[in-house]
Amino acid sequence: MSIIEKVKKLGLPLGQYVVISSGTLDALGIRPANDIDLTVLSELHEALRMSGEWKEENRYGKMFLIQEGIEINPDISWDAYPTSTEEVIRTALVIDGVPFMNLDELRKFKTALGREKDFADIV
């Protein structure tokens, strides 16, 4: 199943989420993603959390939601990457009806993460 099919299967409302990180690279055929990372608006995050269908994991002081290779980040902004989930959604690259972080944002995001694998993706 493609990343687009997997995301569509979640049934999330358009305009309230965006696929981030390597998901964009996967959708564009640059390299496969190992998992699917999303960020969602706070209202959707709370609704998903309350559904009981997602495992909760506290990382970096944020409550991530995890389910079968999918991770939902409740807030994409941090000191090294000052943006908002709303901005990343607004500027998303939509592929077959699924919003993905655009390549300019992805470059900034991966630069801020600063891991070896992120620099490899930037190249």
Explain what the structure shows.
By secondary structure, this protein is α+β, with helices and mostly antiparallel strands. The chain is 39% helix and 24% strand. It contains six helices and seven strands, in the order αβαβαβββαββαα. The chain has helices spanning 3-10, 22-27, 42-51, 85-90, 103-113, 116-122; strands spanning 17-20, 36-40, 55-59, 62-67, 70-73, 93-95, 98-100. The strands form two sheets. It has a five-stranded mixed sheet. β4 and β5 form a beta hairpin. It starts with a helix and ends with a helix.
Distance between the termini: 27 Å
Order of helices and strands: HEHEHEEEHEEHH
Q: Which value, in Å, is the CA radius of gyration?
A: 13 Å
Main sheet record: 5 strands, mixed
What's a concise summary of this model?
This protein has 123 residues and is α+β, with helices and mostly antiparallel strands. 39% of the residues lie in helices and 24% in strands.
Give the SSE map.
Elements: H1 3-10, E1 17-20, H2 22-27, E2 36-40, H3 42-51, E3 55-59, E4 62-67, E5 70-73, H4 85-90, E6 93-95, E7 98-100, H5 103-113, H6 116-122
Parallel strand pairs: 2-5
Antiparallel strand pairs: 1-2, 3-4, 4-5, 6-7
Helix pairs in contact: 5-6
Looking at this protein, list some descriptive labels:
single chain; 123 residues; alpha+beta; two-stranded antiparallel ribbon; 6 helices
